[in-house]
Each structure stands twice: as C-alpha cells, then as structure tokens.
C-alpha cells in the first residue's frame, strides 16, 4: 500500500509550509498491506523500503528542528509514531536485532514467532502508560560493587524504540559538538581525539576530570520533562517510564515488592541513554558563555575578546563523564563552581572523591586511556602522550587468564575462538594512540600464558614435539594486510563434517598496527544525510580493516537488498561468506561480502537448504 498523510486541521499558512516540506503529499514508499492483516506475514515485509520511509521522515524532523519550527517538528513526530513503518522497525529492533531480545521483563514474555512480532506491531501505540521494570544487579568492571540494570517488558521496549525514532533526530540537530556518548556516528575515540586537539598546543594546561555521582539514578524528573519541551502525548509517555515502579523479580512472585521511582532514568531501557544526554545537554554552551563574560584574560598573551575567552576553554563530554581543560587554573576553578551550580538544576552532584583538578603533566585517565602532557627538551614546549591505561591492561590480562584457566581441557581450536575476538577487539579500540610499546609487552605476556597452557597439556612427549604441535615453525601468516613469519604463533585445528582439517591461529597483539583517528566534524550527524558520511565511512571510519575494504569494494551498497550501508545501521552490519565455509568457501575478500543483519539471516537460511548434507537412510535395528 502507499502510506498517505491525513490532512490536519491547520491554518492556510501552516498547510503551505507542510506542502513545501513534502509531508502533505503522498510518500511513495511501498509497504506491505498492513490494512489486511490476514494476508500479510512478517517475512514478507520489505525492510529496505520500510527503513527508507522512516529515514526520510526523520530527516524532515531534523531539518525542521534546525529551522527552529517546533510546530512542524511535533507534527512530523506524531505522524512518525503513528506510521506502520516505524512500528514495524521498532518491533524488529527489540525482537530480532538487539542482543537482549531473549531477556524477559517482569511478565516473563519473549516474542519469538513471526506471528507474535506482527501482532505486537499492530497493537503498538504510545498510550502514556508503562509497566513495572525488572531490576537485576550486575558487577561493575574490575570492581566488587554492583550496579542496577532495569529490564522493561518487551512491549515497553518496543514503545521506547518507537519514541526514540521520533525524538533522536530532533535532538541530534541541537546537541553540542563536543558531546560524544551514545550518539549515532560518534564514539569514545572522538572524545579522546578532541582532548588531544585541546592539549597539543605546546602549552601546559590544567584538567578537571569530573565524575557525576549516580547520574542515571538521580536526574530530576520535572527538570528533564521541562527540557524535553515535547507534545503532550510524548511527555505523558516519558513521564510514565520515568516514574514506573521497579521489581527485583517477576510479577508472579508475591515476595517481591514494587519500589516506585521518584528520580533518575532506569539504566537498561532503549531510550535511557538519549534521556540522559538530553538532561546534560547545555553544559558546554553554558560554560562557554560564562567564561566569555569573565573579566580575566585566559593567558597574558591573549586579547580580551569574548571569542578568545571561549576558545581557551574546552568541554569534552562522553555520557556522564566529562573533562574541562583550560590554561588558567583560576578560570578553571570558577568553571568548576559554575558547573556544580548548573548540575544542581537537574538534580545532579559532582562526586568529589572521583573528580580531580590537576596539571596536565601529572596526567589523567579517561575512557580507558592514560593522557599526559610531556615536557620536551626545548623549554616550555609540551607534547601529548596517550596510551592504554594500566587498569585497562590489567583487565585484559585478568580476563585472558580466567579464560585459559577455566578451559584447561579445551582444544586449542576452541581456546583460540574464545580469545581471538577479545584480543583483537581490545587492540582495535586502543590502536588509535601510542600503543606499540604496550602491545609488544602484552603480546609477550599473553604468549607466556599460552605456552604454559600448552606444555601443561602434554607430559608424555618432549617440549620440541609439543612446541611444533601448538606453535609450528616455518609458517607465514597474513593479518591486517601484512605478512608475518613467526615460529611462535598459537595454532589450533579440527576436522569438519566433510573430514577436512580446519585450522585457525591467534595473531599476536603486536601485529595490530597503530592508526590515526580523525575526529568527527563539528555538529555533523547521520540524520543530515550529507555526503560527509559517505566519505568518512571509507576513509576515516574506526571500522576494522575488513569492513573498510568491503565498503570500498561494494561501493557502500548491500549486495542482497541493494540498499546503502549507512552509519545509522552500522551496528547491524555482518560479514558473510558468499560460499559458506562448510561448502569449502575461503576466508578471502573475493568470497566475502558485507550485509545487513536481516539480509544475512535470509541468505543463511537459503545456504542451509542448499548446502546441508543429505540425511543418510537409517538401517533397521536388529
């Protein structure tokens, strides 16, 4: 069917604006005939066209917010949350694509079958109501204490995903340029690069590393709802989620009591990170305006202009962690005091035990990196040194040690399958800094643990025999577009169903090369649909080498659905073997393709039917 817009009762001027925007005319995006639900199945939906329809409306919301037309923004948001395409995408996100799709809420309900998914999409609507949240306690990384995680019901998760589709493009149009946490197209690496650009001017600077005490748990509800400034239905719905009760168990267990929420946003909800970003939005602009009006010069050589004073202060925020950087300690102390006053308005408090004001020479840790200003031999000249922090290194080694000790009887092949994604994932995050020395040290420590694991397994043969079994000599390994000759590479093998020997190796951490990260440009966002993202995805993106190569080869188009591989759906990209490995397909670029997750699932189903071995006839029992 063709989705059309009903004519709203608006003034002539407003109708003219709507026509110029293109929202009043028919949107020629073909969806499945949802009006006749007896003839539609979940698997028949054209997700490519459905997603393109939603992205177009989101782009219009983004443009309207840039122009400051809130009336148009709210009208388009209402249209989007009532459209069948947005409802379908929301249900698919929480029941198919999300990792926690099989985690139930208090009702123990999980949506698995296509029929149930379609029924949920048909009934989905924002009604200003919310069910209780199931709370579980998960350990903090590297700490004994635990933090609460809220798990809404699957219906509430779908409603939150629907609300997020409407709200996110509006706020992406006005979010501050140095806010990087939980935003599409932005990452922790952008925040680290922003800190580097602020410190690399050959001048010693002071840094205030701030930590907000229980940020998600103490946000003032009224302040957040006032800042949202949205239409009444959306406001009632978000208020219901904020004030929904919490249970540490399931609804059918009478021993668990409901605790009503009076402040904070529940961690674990689909929309929670966006609400936290909205609550903290404005701190950068406020501090810039504050220092611009101070009578103190940033440093003796600067002028007294407002622009110079604002440029001297850097505010870099990643979710609830942020740093303030300034050359003048007196001005920075005034900014810290002003920051505390600003946070009080939304019910937040700085944690004095975890927040520090220090000279850049002493260094600080942020998002797993250790950042220090190092004084050069030349007088009054400084450079910035960024390395993986010691705590991050320790966490990696402890994790690898636990895996090795808990899998003493596992095969070398299975052990490599467990270790490889952890080691490569860690290195891909930290390779955008001065990492060579750290990678070499960690590579040696990991090798010693693996060598001890191998020698412990076999006490009947000599060490040379064991070495050649697990660390064969004279082999060449290709990794990250480089060839490596090494006699101490951990190798594992196993036989497949076709009696073929399948071999895998564990690359050394030191093989992963350092790379320069290019910070995202200003206020750019994927909702702008500009050419900037097409260039960034290929040239400057932080994606692994394999994905970057496939993006170039495929011209950023999915071979199955012929849609563009955009930054907004980057979390749902998957690498596929054109000829599956079980059918003898090689792990080479001419046999690889980058697909959307839903396209990969469809292709895998076809491959199972095509390449599955024929069942052998069972002989009758004697």
From TrEMBL:
Highest taxon, organism lineage: Eukaryota
Organism this protein belongs to: Oedocladium carolinianum
Any Pfam family matching the protein: GIIM
Name used for this protein in its record: Putative reverse transcriptase, intron maturase and HNH endonuclease
Keywords, in A-Z order: Chloroplast, Endonuclease, Hydrolase, Nuclease, Nucleotidyltransferase, Plastid, RNA-directed DNA polymerase, Transferase
One Gene Ontology term of the molecular function aspect: endonuclease activity
Taxonomic lineage from the root: Eukaryota, Viridiplantae, Chlorophyta, core chlorophytes, Chlorophyceae
Domain Reverse transcriptase: 119-371
């Amino acid at each position: 069917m063709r989705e059309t817009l009903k004519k709203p009762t608006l003034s002539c001027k407003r109708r003219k604006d709507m026509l110029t925007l293109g929202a009043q005319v028919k949107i020629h995006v073909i969806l499945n005939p949802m009006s006749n639900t007896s003839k539609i199945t979940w698997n028949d939906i054209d997700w490519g066209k459905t997603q393109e329809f939603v992205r177009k409306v989101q782009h219009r919301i983004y443009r309207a917010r840039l122009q400051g037309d809130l009336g148009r923004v709210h009208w388009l948001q209402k249209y989007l949350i009532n459209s069948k395409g947005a409802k379908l995408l929301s249900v698919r996100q929480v029941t198919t694509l999300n990792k926690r799709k099989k985690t139930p809420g208090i009702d123990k309900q999980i949506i698995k079958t296509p029929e149930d998914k379609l029924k949920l999409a048909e009934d989905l609507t924002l009604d200003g109501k919310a069910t209780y949240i199931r709370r579980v306690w998960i350990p903090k990384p590297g700490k004994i204490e635990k933090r609460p995680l809220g798990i809404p019901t699957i219906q509430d998760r779908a409603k939150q995903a629907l609300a997020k589709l409407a709200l996110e493009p509006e706020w992406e149009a006005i979010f501050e340029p140095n806010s990087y946490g939980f935003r599409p197209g932005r990452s922790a690496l952008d925040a680290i690069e922003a800190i580097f650009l602020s410190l690399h001017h050959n001048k010693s600077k002071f840094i205030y590393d701030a930590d907000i005490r229980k940020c998600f748990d103490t946000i003032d509800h009224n302040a957040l709802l006032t800042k949202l400034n949205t239409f009444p239905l959306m406001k009632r719905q978000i208020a219901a989620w904020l004030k929904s009760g919490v249970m540490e168990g399931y609804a059918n267990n009478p021993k668990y009591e409901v605790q009503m929420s009076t402040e904070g946003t529940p961690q674990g909800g689909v929309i929670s990170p966006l609400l936290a970003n909205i609550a903290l939005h404005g701190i950068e602009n406020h501090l810039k305006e504050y220092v611009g009006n101070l009578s103190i010069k940033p440093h003796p050589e600067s002028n007294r202009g407002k622009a110079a004073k604002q440029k001297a202060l850097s505010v870099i925020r990643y979710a609830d962690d942020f740093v303030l950087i300034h050359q003048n300690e007196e001005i920075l102390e005034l900014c810290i005091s002003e920051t505390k006053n600003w946070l009080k308005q939304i019910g937040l408090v700085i944690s004095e035990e975890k927040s520090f004001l220090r000279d850049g020479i002493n260094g600080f840790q942020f998002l797993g990196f250790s950042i220090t200003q190092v004084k050069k031999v030349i007088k009054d000249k400084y450079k910035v040194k960024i390395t993986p922090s010691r705590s991050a290194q320790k966490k990696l080694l402890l994790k690898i040690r636990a895996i090795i000790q808990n899998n003493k009887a596992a095969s070398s092949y299975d052990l490599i399958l467990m270790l490889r994604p952890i080691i490569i994932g860690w290195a891909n995050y930290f390779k955008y800094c001065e990492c060579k020395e750290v990678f070499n040290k960690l590579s040696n420590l990991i090798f010693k643990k693996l060598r001890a694991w191998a020698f412990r397994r076999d006490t009947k043969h000599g060490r040379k025999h064991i070495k050649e079994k697990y660390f064969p000599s004279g082999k060449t390994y290709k990794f990250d577009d480089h060839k490596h000759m090494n006699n101490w590479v951990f190798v594992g093998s196993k036989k497949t169903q076709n009696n073929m020997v399948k071999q895998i190796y564990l690359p050394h951490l030191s093989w992963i090369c350092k790379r320069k990260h290019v910070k995202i440009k200003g206020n750019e966002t994927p909702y702008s649909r500009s050419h900037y993202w097409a260039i960034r995805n290929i040239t400057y993106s932080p994606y692994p080498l394999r994905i970057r190569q496939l993006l170039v080869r495929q011209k950023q188009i999915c071979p199955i659905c012929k849609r563009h591989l955009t930054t907004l759906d980057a979390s749902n990209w998957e690498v596929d073997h054109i000829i599956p490995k079980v059918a003898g397909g090689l792990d080479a670029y001419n046999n690889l393709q980058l697909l959307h997750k839903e396209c990969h699932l469809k292709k895998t189903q076809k491959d199972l039917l095509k390449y599955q071995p024929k069942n052998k006839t069972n002989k009758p029992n004697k």
